[in-house]
Amino acid sequence: MENTDLNQTGEMAAMLFCFPHLQGSCPRTLRLSVIRVAMYAFMLTTILMTVCGNLLVIISISHFRQLHSPTNVIILSLAMVDCSLGCIIMPFSMVRSVEGCWYLGKHFCKVHSSLDMMISSTSIMHLCLVSVDRYWAICQPLQYRTKVTTFKVILCIGIIWLFSFIFSFGVVFSEAVSAGLDSLVHPCVGSCALICNKQWGVTASLVTFFIPAAIMISLYFKILHVARKHARVMNDRLAKVTCHELKNQTSEQRERKAAKTLAIVMGVFLLCWLPFFITTVMDPFINFMTPVNVFDSLVWFGYFNSTCNPVIYAFFYPHFRKAFKIVLAKTLGFKTTSNILVT
């Protein structure tokens, strides 16, 4: 018995706690200094890329009138959402992930969790809105200019922001997500994790991810089908004035470009968010056996989608690339040949 007590005392002494002076404090995550430095370097780089990339989109769309269109209003709002994630959410999540502790109190933990859910779901819903906009532009081109206006787009964006705010803050502050988990989960002082019961794990994931993702996938497959159909029709018309070989090359290039763009859009989106939401749904059914480090990694995978969004929705378009070059040249003090963006 004495040896056992001595061993336990030695283990307690070797263990570092988030709040050593408080009883029931969470233990700090023990990591080698090299690993901690590497984690901070990677996460800081991701944060800087997220903020700077989305700021570049915001400045470009705001500065150039040629980029003022309903589609770009959605991309502008998406960039603002993703930039907010990089400025407001990711720095606090970085410290929590590396240190394994939350030092800012229970109330700010709820605010952070609510904002995290709100901004992440708003970003996902913006991606869904982009897919709806592209569907109308490609599949209903004659009705697009009259039915899709800047006012309607701003109204939809406002509804998305309002819905995400009410849903996220309502769910977290009502503590409905953790109802019935008292016997399974025993939070310690210094933890900040949003733990969902079975009902809300499924409901929240459906509302914030699976339903928008299903809409995106179905619309993008429809867009791809219509794009291929349009390419065949255009090449049938071009066949009267061009050779057969040129027609085949044009059709193949258009179909390849459309398929590549859509594959990148859906592939990056699903790669970043699908593992996290699958884990969120499954975790309550396996008595919350998912390790904290795994969950943190999946959260940062989801955050990384906001880092990729400027590349996917802006850098792929020539007029955005030219706008970025002009903005960067002015920022760095280089002379530009033109301040006018030709699209």
From TrEMBL:
The chain crosses the membrane at residues 37-61, 73-94, 114-132, 153-173, 200-221, 261-278, 298-316. SUPFAM superfamilies: Family A G protein-coupled receptor-like. Residues 53-313 form the G-protein coupled receptors family 1 profile domain. One of its GO terms (cellular component) is plasma membrane. It is found in: Cell membrane. Its main location: membrane. The keyword Transmembrane applies. The gene is LOC115819348. This is Trace amine-associated receptor 4-like. Keywords: Cell membrane, Disulfide bond, G-protein coupled receptor, Glycoprotein, Membrane, Receptor, Transducer, Transmembrane, Transmembrane helix. Pfam families: 7tm_1. The keyword Nucleus does not apply. Belongs to the G-protein coupled receptor 1 family. PANTHER family: HISTAMINE RECEPTOR-RELATED G-PROTEIN COUPLED RECEPTOR (PTHR24249), TRACE AMINE-ASSOCIATED RECEPTOR 4 (PTHR24249:SF220). It is a multi-pass membrane protein. GO terms for molecular function: trace-amine receptor activity.
